[in-house]
Specification:
With 92 residues, the protein is mainly α. 48% of the residues lie in helices and 7% in strands.
Length: 92
C-alpha cells in the first residue's frame, strides 16, 4: 500500500465514522437543543439564556466606562495603528 492509498483509505474511514455519529434531527430540533445546552457566563456563575441581563441604554452607560461602553454597546473598535502588537517584529 502506498502513501496515496493509505491516505485515501484513512479519509474514507474517518468520513464513515463521522457520519455514523451524525444526528438526523431536523434543523429546528438541533437549534433548540443547542440553544439550551450552551450556558452563558454571568458575573462568575453560569446562566441559561433565559437569565440574560436586560438593561436600558442609560443603565449600561452608567455601569461601563466610556471606552467599554463604546466597544460593547455601540460596536466601536480601537483606533487604527494604536495596538502595541503593530510594532512586534519577533519571528513566530
Amino acid at each position: 500500500m502506498n502513501k496515496r492509498q493509505f491516505l485515501l483509505a484513512a479519509g474514507v474511514l474517518g468520513t464513515y465514522a463521522a457520519l455514523r455519529n451524525v444526528s438526523w434531527a431536523s434543523e429546528q430540533e438541533q437549534a433548540v437543543s443547542m440553544s439550551s445546552a450552551v450556558p452563558e457566563f454571568k458575573w462568575g456563575k453560569m446562566m441559561s439564556p433565559d437569565e440574560r441581563i436586560t438593561l436600558s441604554d442609560a443603565e449600561w452607560k452608567q455601569r461601563l466606562d466610556p471606552e467599554r461602553y463604546r466597544v460593547l454597546r455601540k460596536e466601536g473598535t480601537e483606533r487604527a495603528g494604536t495596538s502595541p502588537l503593530n510594532d512586534e517584529k519577533r519571528s513566530g
